[in-house]
RNA sequence: GGGGGAGUGCCCGAGUGGUUAAAGGGGGCGGACUGUAAAUCCGUUGGCGCAGCCUACGUAGGUUCGAAUCCUACCUCCCCCA
């Protein structure tokens, strides 16, 4: 029978990059029934509109959602406008600023906009959880709470850890998993996806559905994307992130800067390519037919393409080659306008100039750069810290710092 | 309410009276190499027109020829008991 084969094919795509699928057999069953009855599964992803700055890490679950969409399932993106007011304690920050409804609204819009670059939002359901959470009465909440035991909530290790370490743990934080779980009930979710840090919350949904006599959802956890440092999870505060608002060239460059090993995680989690295609590339690299550099270039192109266009992705690739392989000056160099009137005796001290154009924040740093041979003017390395130039002579010249920072001087 | 501990450079973390602008690591920056802004190696990482000077070890005072190191007060954080 071809059904088994179809199920396996779906499972292959769904499992790609996933850390855990709980329980796997149950998911197979669901998919099988879905195919047999040609009734799509309801797949849920919840996002908290708590921040405006999204990065590639946020696209991991969205990419998985896209996989489901490709397989013809019904995906639901839940904007946690209600839960955002509490703040998921999963990250133990504690210092979470209270967001105004306007902020939440703005962030929600950004989120949907970014999501639309990955999933087909016209075929997805996009809902806000205030829709069903806001009307709940205190009595409803208590009734829901009775379905959970404290011991069970304490299974969550960040809760128990915080308690053990005598760090504050708000009662309201206990209710967070409950709210997220209720989302699953309200939607009759078949599958919920989330990061590994969400495992507990996802399981809470499954448990709550069971206690209310509904069919429990399967859960899929996905790894947290490693940042450009190759070690820690991607996060803006660690400044190892690739922001979705980074211009194409920068996004491309940052992807090229990830290590060869983590490139495969990126492929599996956010390239949008099929498992087979990725496997093919991987084999070719292992066989030495494709260099890791080229494989990474392909990855960078795929990623930039998602957020911009194919054209911009290719031109970013060209530019990258130009600067780093051929060591040439980029096609577009930012311009710094120098006013000769600032220099009455027609002399600019190189150290001052470097600070002026922001290549260094202090004169000491500027000196250091020169000592280290990191500065050149029109390709000629500057060695003399005391160098003085006539501003007129700088017109049209390109000053370079390190390998990738350029600025062109123009006169006022 | 009682008892105890800690605050060091971007971050972590040594240092308990004198070559300490402060070990070591991380991160950043620069260089070499290369297949890339991978990996690896090397250098550098308070300020100042810098062979010198100034400012720095929670804050403010004090002891001393001399303090990040000792004393006093204050602030902040943490732990134990209630």
What order do the helices and strands come in, and which of them pair?
Blueprint: H1 2-15, E1 20-22, H2 24-37, E2 42-47, H3 59-70, E3 74-79, H4 101-115, E4 125-128, H5 130-133, H6 138-145, H7 150-153, H8 157-164, H9 171-187, E5 191-195, H10 199-211, E6 218-222, H11 248-256, H12 263-270, H13 275-286, H14 292-307, H15 310-325, E7 335-338, E8 348-349, H16 350-356, H17 363-371, E9 375-377, E10 380-381, E11 388-389, E12 398-401, E13 405-411
Parallel strand pairs: 2-3, 2-5, 3-4, 5-6, 7-13
Antiparallel strand pairs: 1-6, 8-11, 9-10, 9-12, 12-13
Helix pairs in contact: 1-2, 9-10, 11-14, 11-15, 14-15, 16-17
This protein binds one RNA strand of 82 nucleotides through helix 11, helix 14, helix 15 and helix 17.
Tag the structure with descriptive keywords.
Structural Genomics Hypothetical 15.5 Kd Protein In mrcA-pckA Intergenic Region, Chain A; Rossmann fold; six-stranded mixed β-sheet; Tyrosyl-Transfer RNA Synthetase; 13 strands; RNA-binding; 412 residues; 3 domains
Short description:
The chain is α/β, with parallel strands linked by helices and about 400 residues long.
Mind explaining what this structure looks like?
This protein has about 400 residues and is of the alpha/beta class. The protein folds into 3 domains: about 1-220, Rossmann fold (3-Layer(aba) Sandwich); about 235-325, Tyrosyl-Transfer RNA Synthetase (Orthogonal Bundle); about 335-410, Structural Genomics Hypothetical 15.5 Kd Protein In mrcA-pckA Intergenic Region, Chain A (Roll). The protein is built from 17 helices and 13 strands. It has a 6-stranded mixed sheet with strand order 1-6-5-2-3-4, sandwiched between helices. Strand 3, helix 4 and strand 4 form a beta-alpha-beta unit. The termini are far apart. It binds one RNA strand of 82 nucleotides through helix 11, helix 14, helix 15 and helix 17.
């Amino acid at each position: 029978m071809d059904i088994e084969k179809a199920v396996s094919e779906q499972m292959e795509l769904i499992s790609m990059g996933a850390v855990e699928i709980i329980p796997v057999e149950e998911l197979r069953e669901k998919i099988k029934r879905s195919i047999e009855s040609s009734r799509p599964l309801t797949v849920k992803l919840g996002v908290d509109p708590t921040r405006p700055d999204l990065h590639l890490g946020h696209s991991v679950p969205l990419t998985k959602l896209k996989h489901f969409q490709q397989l013809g399932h019904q995906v639901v993106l839940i904007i946690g406008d209600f839960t955002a007011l509490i703040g998921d304690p999963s990250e133990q920050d504690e210092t979470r600023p209270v967001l105004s409804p306007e902020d939440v609204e703005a962030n929600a819009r950004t989120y949907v906009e970014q999501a639309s670059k990955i999933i087909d939002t016209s075929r997805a359901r996009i809902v806000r959880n205030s829709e069903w959470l806001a009307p709940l009465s205190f009595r409803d909440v208590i009734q829901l709470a009775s379905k959970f035991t404290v011991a069970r909530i304490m299974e969550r290790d960040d809760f128990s850890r915080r308690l053990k370490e005598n760090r504050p743990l708000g009662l309201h934080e206990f209710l967070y998993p409950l709210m997220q779980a209720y989302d699953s009930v309200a939607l009759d979710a078949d599958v919920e996806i989330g990061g590994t840090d969400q495992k507990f919350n996802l399981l809470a949904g499954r448990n709550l559905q069971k206690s209310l006599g509904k069919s429990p959802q399967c859960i899929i956890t996905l790894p947290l994307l490693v940042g450009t440092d190759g070690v820690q999870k991607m996060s803006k505060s660690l400044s190892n992130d690739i922001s979705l608002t980074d211009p194409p060239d920068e996004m491309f460059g940052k992807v090229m800067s990830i290590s060869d090993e983590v490139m495969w995680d990126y492929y599996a989690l956010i390239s949008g390519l099929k498992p087979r295609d990725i496997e093919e590339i991987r084999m070719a690299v292992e066989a030495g037919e494709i260099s890791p550099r080229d494989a990474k270039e392909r990855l960078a192109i795929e990623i930039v393409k998602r957020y911009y266009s194919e054209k911009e992705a290719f031109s970013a690739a060209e530019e990258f080659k130009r600067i780093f392989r051929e060591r040439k000056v980029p096609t577009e160099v930012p311009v710094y306008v120098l006013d000769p009137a600032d220099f009455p005796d027609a002399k600019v001290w190189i150290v001052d100039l470097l600070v002026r154009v922001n290549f260094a924040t202090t004169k000491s740093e500027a000196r250091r750069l020169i000592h280290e041979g990191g500065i050149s003017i029109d390709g000629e390395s500057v060695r003399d810290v005391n160098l003085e130039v006539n501003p007129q002579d700088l017109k049209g010249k390109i000053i370079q710092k390190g390998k990738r920072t350029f600025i062109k001087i123009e006169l006022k």
